[in-house]
């Protein structure tokens, strides 16, 4: 096999791997997503982004996609997007969801329950100090404690 054939084979392999990679689903149906999270006893993870945001892409690849692979319910909300969102009072588009939660910049990760209540402090900004994983762990612990109190 010459180098052209090898390069073509590698390109096909890379394309196949890229298409199999998990992606983040957009927030589109609040009621369905909040029911899924409630049934699993987990928070709904809202990942607020902006198009072309390199910090958003870093957080998506390094933290949000692994959360999806672990079974967490992560939904992407694009600030400024008119993409419809059903079932959430006072927010019928993704930009309205950002306004409802007071999110004006990206990236922001917010853990909420089915009633749109914040379960933990938001994680704002990118992973500039290498501590993002710890921030996520703390937010999930805080969310689980809050969810546990809500059940009791």
From TrEMBL:
SUPFAM superfamilies: Thioredoxin-like
Alphabetical keyword list: Signal
First and last residue of the signal peptide: 1-20
Domain Thioredoxin-like fold: residue ranges: 38-118
One Pfam family from the record: Thioredoxin_2
Coiled-coil parts of chain: none
Name of the protein this chain belongs to: Thioredoxin fold domain-containing protein
Organism lineage: Bacteria, Pseudomonadati, Pseudomonadota, Betaproteobacteria, Burkholderiales
């Amino acid at each position: 096999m010459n180098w052209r054939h090898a390069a073509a084979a590698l390109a096909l392999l890379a394309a196949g791997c890229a298409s199999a990679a998990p992606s983040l689903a957009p927030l589109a149906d609040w009621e369905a997503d909040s029911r899924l999270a409630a049934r699993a006893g987990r928070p709904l993870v809202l990942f607020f982004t902006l198009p072309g945001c390199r910090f958003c892409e870093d957080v998506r690849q390094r933290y949000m996609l692994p959360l999806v692979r672990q079974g967490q319910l992560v939904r992407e909300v694009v600030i400024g997007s008119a993409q419809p969102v059903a079932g959430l009072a006072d927010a019928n588009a993704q930009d309205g969801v950002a306004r409802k939660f007071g999110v004006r910049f990206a990236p922001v990760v917010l853990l909420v329950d089915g009633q749109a209540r914040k379960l933990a402090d938001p994680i704002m900004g990118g992973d500039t100090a290498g501590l993002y994983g710890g921030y996520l762990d703390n937010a999930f612990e805080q969310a689980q404690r809050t969810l546990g109190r809500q059940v009791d």
